[in-house]
């Protein structure tokens, strides 16, 4: 019997970076809850952003945010992950090189309650604040941030065709570089990813691997896909994510509704 359902958001449960959850998905999650099946949203998004999305459910669900660097249930932080300050400096060094070559590259450094960014680009600022509804603090110098960093990510509206190989070549031996959307790469904090967070939830609720299913579409979902008993990847997903999954589907919804 399935007791836990974990789903990535962007590109999986939601599309085009939606900031509201369709009623059919809310209704399905509520029906799962009534049947005693836990649903968790697992995303690279900011915790506050994800929590706002699912607040209309009217009950608490566990959240896997920042690619697993924050795992929260009922306001209790169950697990966190941090990226070493030395690695953050190396990411920023590579970013400065990338900007010189490609004249783009918008970086966010995530801490518990905000994203830090040095971007002055109007399109990026509008996207972060008005499309994604993120909490962002703009600073002139990312090197000056002294707070522990949960996650680093870089956006290039031109896509990841340059981003992923560029950063993988320069710092891929130090930190895992993954695509998380069509125009984002994320740097996965050591020992903290969606898979490790999912295992924390399984342990907390006494759920076995075979009692858990999950859905994803990108490289930042791979550890989670491997951690679940049964893994589904979207037909539009990354080839490496498909290799880590058991099934390829068009949408999580029919599978979730099949549990009812």
Automatic annotation (TrEMBL):
Its protein name is Cof-type HAD-IIB family hydrolase
Reported EC number(s) for this entry are 3.1.3.-
Q: State a single Gene Ontology molecular function.
A: magnesium ion binding
Which NCBIfam families does this UniProt record tie to the protein? Cof-subfamily (TIGR00099), HAD-SF-IIB (TIGR01484)
Q: Which UniProt keywords apply?
A: Hydrolase
- Source species, please? Coprococcus comes
Q: Which Pfam family, giving just one, matches this sequence?
A: Hydrolase_3
Alphabetical GO CC annotations of the entry are: cytosol
Q: Which Gene3D superfamilies match?
A: 3.30.1240.10, HAD superfamily/HAD-like
The upper taxonomy is: Bacteria, Bacillati, Bacillota, Clostridia, Lachnospirales
What is the uppermost EC class here? hydrolase
Q: What domain of life is recorded for the organism?
A: Bacteria
